[in-house]
Every structure is written in structure tokens, then in C-alpha cells.
């Protein structure tokens, strides 16, 4: 059964009218919102629990989606826009510390994206309220990985490969990276690999070699966990190449270590030893007094 937020639905009983969508609820015709619910209850297609929550049968929802709303793209976007404003205003406190308090924001993201307001949703709800920019509050503090995965799926045109082009490239890269991290954390490794690869493709296109090296390394480690060692070796070598393009000493060193480790796990022990030695040379070139400990 599908739970109905009666207060949210009631906002459609208010004007202005969304032509072809809510005339019956606003009184533009003979049927009004309370009568709709009463009729559904009478037909055993909806019911209220002891706490007053309204539930509608899935068959009703499916009928509405497949028939009534079919071909109403513009009207639906306006309707979702109204719900987006409703849930955004409903959210209290402004920076919730509990998942239950954050729920209206999560619902607002869904309706905001379905209304096409991707930029406003990303900047003012997702980035500011939910993830708290680089803190990723919902993941690191609330440990709500499942909720986060459901949340970011709203930004995708094709999960987990294509983020909506209505977000600028840096935002798309951030969504892909965060999605990959969360999917990996819950064990959905192949989906994580897909989204991380999509993120890497963007980094290569914009020639962000440092982040591309980090991304390729992460994908390599992911494929090792999947047991696909040859692919892990290829991705690790790619990360090494990107690190060299970046000129960053730390990543030139660490990506050689990652590649050497992948070679070792693939059974190429001599090549692995050679790259571990090359990794040490990177540090010695930067600091001639460097000593390898261990």
C-alpha cells in the first residue's frame, strides 16, 4: 500500500489551478478533494489507520500513473514543483541532526528533481542541508547509506551511469563520486564500478589528472574485490599514467605502489618488485635523503 501525506495532497486543493490536473480538487468542477478520498475508502481502495494516516492501494497508484497522468509531462512538473516548495518549507530544523528530521528534505529532493529544478535542489538542499558540502553529513554522521543512495538516484537520467545534464560538470562529477562511495559501502560493487567509471570519464575529459589518478586507483581496488584482477591491473596502470600527467609527487609514488600491488596479486611478482622499486625512486628523486622504512 502507498502512504498518502494528506497535508501534502491538500496543497493541490488550493489555487492556482494546474490546468488539466487539479481542477476537481480546487472546486473547478463538481468533485472536490475530500469526496475523492471518501469514494476511494468506500470502494476499499483506501483506508485510514488508527493514527489517521491514509493508505491507498498500489493498484490505484498504478492506474493513475499509467492512464490518468500519461502524457501530462508539463502538468506533472508543475505539480512536483508545488510539492517541492511544500516539503522545502516543511523542513525543520534548518540543519537537522536526525534522519527523521531530515526526511522532508529527502522528499523535497525527489519532487524538486521531478519538477526539473535540479540546480536549486543541488545547491540549496542537497549540498547545503543534507551533505553539508564536503562533510557528507548524511553518510558520515547518520550512516544512512541506503537513504543517500535513494537520494542521489534522483539526479540520474540513467542510474548509475548518466547524471542529468541539467547540472554543471563539476556537480555531476561530485554526484558520481559520492554515489560510487555509497554503493561500494553497501556492497553493490558492480554498480559502484559503473558510476565511478562515469566519473572518471568526466575527469579525463576536463583533464583533471590528479583526481583522475585517484579515481582510477579506486576503481582498480574495486575490481580486485570483485576478483577481476586483469581489469584491476589495467585500471591501476591508468592511474599511474594520470599521476605522471598531474606531476604530483605523492600520487606518482602511491599509484606506482597500487600498480605494483595489482601486478603482485596477478602473479607477476618480478614486475611488481620492479614497480615497488620505481615507487621508492620517485621519493628519492624528490628527497635524496629519503630512507625507506620497514
Question: Would you mind describing this structure in some detail?
Answer:
The protein is built from 15 helices and 5 strands. It is mostly helical and 294 residues long. β4 and β5 form a beta hairpin. α10 runs antiparallel to α11. The termini are far apart.
Question: How would the blueprint of this fold be written?
Answer:
Elements lengths: L1 E3 L1 H5 L12 H4 L6 H10 L3 E3 L5 E3 L1 H11 L4 H18 L8 H16 L3 H13 L6 H4 L4 H8 L3 E3 L3 E2 L5 H17 L3 H17 L3 H18 L2 H18 L2 H17 L3 H18 L8
Antiparallel strand pairs: 1-3, 2-3, 4-5
Question: Brief overview, please?
Answer:
Helices cover 66% and strands 5% of the residues. It has helices at 6-10, 23-26, 33-42, 58-68, 73-90, 99-114, 118-130, 137-140, 145-152, 169-185, 189-205, 209-226, 229-246, 249-265, 269-286, and strands spanning 2-4, 46-48, 54-56, 156-158, 162-163.
Strand adjacency order, main sheet: 1-3-2
Beta-strand content bin: under 5%
Envelope shape: elongated
Fraction in helix = 55-70%
Protein structure class: mainly alpha
Radius of gyration: 25 Å
The tally of helices reads 15
Low-confidence stretches: none
Key traits:
66% helix; three-stranded antiparallel β-sheet; two-stranded antiparallel sheet; elongated; single chain; 294 residues; mainly alpha
